[in-house]
């Protein structure tokens, strides 16, 4: 368990796999998130639950007030202990959304104010108060929205799903192969075997090729710049993207953009 406060945009943007249920409250600023299917926008004063075992990309929107989220990460051992301690029942939760709006509540607002004296830096609460505050928050959330028990107390692992559909929808997410395997309900060995049968390629090679093909399209057809797209396509840095692009297509992304610019100019 840990709590994050202050300007943590760098930490948030780096991680695209959500391993544990995450409570997010925005003190300042606004953020847009995308889960591969749907986009969500949250502003100051909003709260939500980011559901575990999902992928997400985060974009901090321009804000003159700065960006300050508070996050509580609920891991499985804590949730199991809480469920046993309070004899909480798991209810059904029908929505499949990766992000769930938390309804506005005076209790949540008061809770956010109550934790401020216990900040220990910006990454955690004072140890003596941590478990108490986690329990308090979860009690408030379940009182405010009892149906959230179906989210917090769901401990099953992801089931086996259609590999081709999932990968074609989520190839832009920058996560490890073992996380893709887990999310599709497979062991690493089964994932690699099924991947070979489906795509006739290895996961790593296919991911790079698929991302670069999309990059070529965006640069050649939509006049995008490498600096605008490399992060969105799952590359960690621009130099790696540029090297891989030239290796794949025999010319740099800058050269491709130049050729496209000449074509546009010629037809004017």
UniProtKB/TrEMBL annotation:
| Keywords assigned by UniProt, alphabetized | DNA-binding, Transcription, Transcription regulation
Recorded hits in InterPro entries, A to Z, give: AraC_XylS_family_regulators, ExsA-like_N, Homeodomain-like_sf, HTH_AraC
Molecular function in Gene Ontology: DNA-binding transcription factor activity; sequence-specific DNA binding
Pfam families named in the record: ExsA_N, HTH_18
Residue limits of the HTH araC/xylS-type domain? 161-259
Report what the protein is called: AraC-type DNA-binding protein
């Amino acid at each position: 368990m840990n709590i994050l406060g202050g300007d943590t945009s760098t930490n948030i943007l780096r991680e695209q796999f959500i391993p544990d249920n995450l409570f997010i409250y925005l003190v300042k600023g606004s953020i847009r998130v995308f889960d591969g299917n749907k986009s969500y926008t949250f502003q100051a004063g909003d709260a939500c639950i980011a559901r575990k075992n999902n992928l997400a990309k985060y974009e901090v929107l321009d804000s003159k007030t700065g960006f300050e989220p508070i996050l509580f990460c609920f891991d499985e051992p804590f949730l199991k202990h809480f469920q046993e301690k309070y004899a909480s029942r798991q209810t059904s939760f029908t929505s499949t959304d990766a992000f769930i709006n938390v309804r506005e509540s005076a209790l949540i607002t008061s809770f956010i104010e109550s934790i401020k004296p216990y900040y220990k830096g910006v990454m955690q609460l004072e140890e003596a108060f941590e478990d108490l505050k986690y329990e308090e928050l979860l009690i408030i959330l379940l009182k405010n929205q009892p149906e959230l028990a179906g989210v917090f107390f769901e401990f099953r692992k992801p089931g086996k799903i259609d590999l081709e559909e999932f990968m074609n929808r989520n190839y832009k997410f920058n996560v490890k192969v073992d996380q893709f395997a887990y999310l599709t309900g497979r062991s690493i060995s089964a994932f690699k075997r099924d991947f070979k049968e489906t795509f006739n390629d290895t996961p790593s090679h296919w991911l790079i090729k698929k991302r670069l093909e999309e990059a070529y399209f965006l640069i050649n057809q939509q006049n995008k710049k490498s600096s605008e797209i490399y992060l969105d396509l799952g590359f960690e840095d621009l130099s790696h993207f540029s090297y891989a692009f030239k290796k794949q297509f025999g010319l740099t992304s800058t050269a491709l953009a130049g050729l496209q610019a000449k074509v546009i100019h010629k037809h004017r």
